[in-house]
Each structure stands twice: as C-alpha cells, then as structure tokens.
Amino acid sequence: MIVVRDSAVIAGSLAHKPRQGGHTWQFLQYLLGFKRLGWDVLFVDYLQPEMCVDETGQSARFESP
Description:
Blueprint: E1 7-11, H1 21-36, E2 40-44
Parallel strand pairs: 1-2
C-alpha cells in the first residue's frame, strides 16, 4: 500500500520586506491552516544579495547580521 499525503507549497516574499508583520502573518495563516488539515507544507522565498537592507532600509551586504 502506498500512502501519499497532500502537499502545499506556499511562495511569498518575506525575506526582503523587514518590519512587515501583517504580511508575514498572512503567509503564516496559510501554512498553519494547511498543516492543521494534515498537509505537508513548505514555504519558499526568494532573496538576491541586492535585495538586502539593514534596519534603516539602506542597502546592506548579504553576509551582514
């Protein structure tokens, strides 16, 4: 017998939008909802070095803390 679970891949842009709690919460609700329904969930984000900013919104190096 082969059992296949349902899977959901949710893609969003969180890494390059700091201090956007509402935006983050939206994706979290999708992830938690699918997980609660028994789905395997995966969140995918995309970040390029030139998208990185520091706490003031200025360009920052990818390696910077």
